[in-house]
């Protein structure tokens, strides 16, 4: 069981990659805060090597999804998909009181009508790419996770929130529906009836209720879920990398079919761990009463 921790992991790591805005219109008089990238990708080192953070950073909009932020996010996932050194990804916010509040409506109002479906399709592509990453993805939800922000969280493997966090697919208040996977992933998380209730009413719920209905795996009694996400990521680092990837495949694919076919998927995934060097290392380490040293081979 994860214990209560108070460490701040917000700036850990040696290698930090900042993905710049896709915007060439910045003026010389733009405030310094506006120059910060909407997204920061941080690869940690030493005992946290293998953990990657994606930190959303648009304080002026509570991390509302702009075109620049969306493209930065998509590019980050494209790079992580082929990053063999990445073992666990944590999605979090650098903005107090907000995980992500959905699409940037101010930007949306200036968007030509024909561009809106393209923008939403791009967010849908983002959530699909996030869900299909071969490594575990943990969402650390502090504050508001609304609309597209909750859809991003729903695409993660494990959701950890604070008890005071606020979550909801609130699109029907704007006379639209969730369009980046929310209607499907929320239904799979909480069931048909509860998903309909939350979407039809555009209701926001707190972390306590989200944990009760299975929307998040844990709601913590603390100011931030980030340290708990890190503790879970550290536990994952101790496991076999190949086994984790295949376990994720078995759960994801198997859960979309009936039990009989799901068992076949599990069998096929299990067969792929048998010839790995990591499995032999685990057996050897067990016999020698030491921690195994996995290489993902």
TrEMBL record:
The keyword Lyase applies. Keywords: Lyase. It comes from the Eukaryota. One of its GO terms (biological process) is fatty acid beta-oxidation. Signal peptide: none annotated. One of its GO terms (molecular function) is enoyl-CoA hydratase activity. Belongs to the enoyl-CoA hydratase/isomerase family. This is Uncharacterized protein. It comes from Panagrolaimus superbus.
């Amino acid at each position: 069981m994860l214990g209560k921790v108070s460490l701040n992991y917000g700036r850990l790591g040696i290698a930090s990659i900042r993905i710049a805005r896709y915007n060439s219109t910045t003026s010389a008089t733009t405030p310094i805060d506006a120059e910060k990238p909407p997204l920061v990708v941080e690869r940690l080192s030493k005992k946290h090597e293998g953990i990657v953070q994606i930190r959303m950073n648009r304080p002026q909009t509570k991390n509302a999804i702009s075109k620049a932020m969306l493209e930065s996010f998509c590019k980050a996932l494209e790079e992580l998909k082929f990053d063999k050194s990445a073992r666990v990804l944590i999605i979090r916010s650098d903005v107090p009181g907000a995980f992500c509040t959905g699409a940037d409506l101010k930007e949306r109002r200036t968007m030509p009508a024909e561009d809106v479906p393209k923008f939403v399709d791009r967010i849908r592509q983002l959530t699909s790419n996030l869900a299909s990453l071969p490594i575990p993805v943990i969402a650390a939800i502090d504050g508001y996770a609304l609309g597209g922000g909750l859809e991003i969280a729903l695409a993660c493997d494990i959701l950890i929130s604070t008890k005071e966090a606020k979550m909801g697919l609130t699109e029907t208040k704007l006379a639209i529906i969730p369009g980046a996977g929310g209607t499907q992933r929320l239904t799979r998380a909480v069931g048909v009836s509860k998903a309909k209730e939350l979407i039809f009413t555009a209701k926001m719920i707190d972390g306590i209720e989200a944990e009760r209905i299975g929307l998040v795996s844990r709601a913590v009694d603390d100011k931030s879920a980030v340290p708990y996400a890190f503790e879970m990521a550290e536990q994952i680092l101790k496991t076999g990398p190949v086994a984790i990837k295949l376990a994720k495949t078995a759960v994801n694919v198997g859960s979309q079919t009936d039990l009989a076919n799901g068992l076949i998927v599990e069998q096929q995934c299990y067969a792929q761990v048998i010839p790995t060097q990591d499995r032999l290392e685990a057996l050897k380490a067990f016999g020698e009463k030491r921690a195994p040293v996995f290489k993902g081979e």
